[in-house]
């Protein structure tokens, strides 16, 4: 292990760069600003890759094509496909952060994007349900290494006064990617009809997004070229592949055994979460002493748990929002996609605004926690209002639904960089990658379950109201978990670095 660590370039921080930072201080555009934009590009393409499955599945169900054409419970099966993707994404959250701490966070960012781009292209080539699921799980396994390393690079490279703003600006790419996948999937499919048989037009979506991801990977590799060596990149890729091979085998074994045993799609998704928890506990048993500071910190653990609600809400609406809106308003696939785009598009404003307000709160001496609680509370109230409107209105208006989705999502997206900055302050600097990985790993249980649970409730009730009410209840639970968290800037926790 020591020899492998020695191969890794030391992390570069503003403090470590000394004269370079001083020279940059007089410039209007700082080096970390251009870094933000490139990392945001990485978020954009990877988020589009992972969220496009929902609109494609909705199109398949509406047009009675592909492997969903003859499904008895198409929404439950579609949700399970989304959940299995996030099972893969979940299982490399912590290993991705740990490998970033070991081989270099910039290295893992490039590896993750190249992996995701290739796997997304391959998705467009495959046929059959099981093969499609395998490739989507593989895509998730690669993309899972991006989050924790991206968050750590920003924290290292950005001065503390702009840290939360940087975290918010960069993750705006998540909103951009989800918006692109939600709004433009009908156009990608229409383009596919010009070149492919109509039943295969959905494949064009994966060809376009996979190519875009590889181009973004090339841009980041060029920016990080001084930190990349063939030897370290190769070792990091092989190490991530080893984790991923075991994870893929376990995920597909659970799927096959559950299917042959006649279990419902929901129970298969639940078993995938149990599997993930078991794998994590096994890994932590081996690394528990080394990772104790990010595992035994009570406030960090409460933040990890609260992110179950964050990821549940994010991927419930990202996966099913087109179907929710189109079904409630009895509208077309294209109109539903445009209206659902308000939910995703709110992040373009919410993420950077939340980061800026978080930094402002720190400069004023308020700390980050009060704002995090406030935004979570407002989001919970607005989600309850949306659920009530779906239940009460005979024919919900596209305009009203779009406004409610946009407003709730605005606060929801704003709270995320605040939570990320709070995690960075509570975690020891040398273990930030592991802390961010653990935060997203725990939270991804929500992403694994929400598409599947939402799909099952849709099939059983004939509408989306029950699933939206459940989403609102989970957000309220996340709010309650944040109340005991100690803000390090208000007399508790770890002294900020």
Number of helices: 22
Order of helices and strands: HHHHHHHHHHHHHHHHHHHHHH
Class of secondary structure makeup: mainly alpha
Radius of gyration: 21 Å
Bulk shape: globular
Low-confidence runs of at least 5 consecutive residues: 1-26, 491-497
Percent helix, as a range, is over 70%
Distance between the first and last residues' Cα = 27 Å
Mean residue pLDDT? 83
Major sheet attributes: none
Count of beta strands: 0
Tags for this model:
mainly alpha, 497 residues, disordered N terminus, disordered C terminus, 22 helices
Description:
This protein is mostly helical and 497 residues long. Helix content is 80%, strand content 0%. It is built from 22 helices and no strands. It has helices at 2-6, 14-17, 19-24, 31-51, 53-63, 74-91, 93-103, 105-123, 129-143, 146-157, 163-195, 203-223, 230-260, 265-287, 292-295, 298-329, 333-345, 347-363, 369-392, 398-426, 432-461, 465-482. It is globular, with a radius of gyration of 21 Å.
Short description:
By secondary structure, the protein is mainly alpha-helical.
Strand and helix layout:
Elements: H1 2-6, H2 14-17, H3 19-24, H4 31-51, H5 53-63, H6 74-91, H7 93-103, H8 105-123, H9 129-143, H10 146-157, H11 163-195, H12 203-223, H13 230-260, H14 265-287, H15 292-295, H16 298-329, H17 333-345, H18 347-363, H19 369-392, H20 398-426, H21 432-461, H22 465-482
Helix pairs in contact: 4-10, 4-11, 4-12, 5-6, 5-11, 5-16, 6-9, 6-13, 6-14, 6-21, 7-8, 7-10, 7-13, 7-21, 8-9, 8-10, 8-12, 9-13, 10-21, 11-12, 11-17, 11-18, 11-20, 13-14, 14-21, 16-17, 16-20, 16-21, 16-22, 17-20, 18-20, 19-20, 19-22, 21-22
